[in-house]
Amino acid sequence: MTTPDALAGDPVATSSESDIQLATRLAVDAGRLLVGLRHELQAQGLPMWEVMDHGDAAGHRLIADELREHRPHDAVLDEEGAEDPRRFESDRVWIIDPLDGTREYGEGRHDWAVHVALWDTDHFLAGAVALPAVDRVLATEPAPVLPAMDRDRPRIVTSRTRAPYAAVVVANALGCEPVRLGSAGAKAMAVVTGDADIYLHDGGMYQWDSAAPAAVAIAAGLHVSRVDGSPLVYNERSEWLPDFLVCRQELAQPVLDALWK
Asked: 155-260 belongs to which CATH class?
């Protein structure tokens, strides 16, 4: 598994910003844009699906334009962008989800996020997850400080509408208290902030859904892996990376034992 020590790198830049400074700024700037845009569109009485579509497009444009200006030689894997053929020839690839939790955004909820991560060959150079509706950003530097676990029952965070079968198995085995949130970024950051202790997803996702949350969680010292315990690997040819586990280190083995014994 990638360790926090692997989160340093030399930027290939056309600006004075380091990779982590750029990642954090892009996450924050896109988030502020999206908060303002949502307010405007909802004030106009637009239906939810239009708010969602405008949000996806606006977040993508801002981040894509900034990367084109400040990291023109890097490849980009963006949920909302066209395929960048350079990513199969480049070591440095920005993995972006400009609006993670589009439905929550359209509904006016707080549990959506902006993901910006930079992957280099086999490790993260930078990552930031903004939670714009609560005016917060968590990044790989400075690394988040994980609070002590002060409850008897671990909390497992799952989606608002359904709990994946694997999460049900773990919750029953460990006697977990369930927490429900929207986007993948919001759920993973709940573990980083100590509001939850386990986030387990096995229902299918893409590289951009987990890249920035994984980078931030690794920097915080959490266990981060596939649900079988194997490392997460990014910039693979397939955009599909179907499962994701983030949890406190002391819970990693109990979680994996519950799943595979």
From this structure: alpha beta
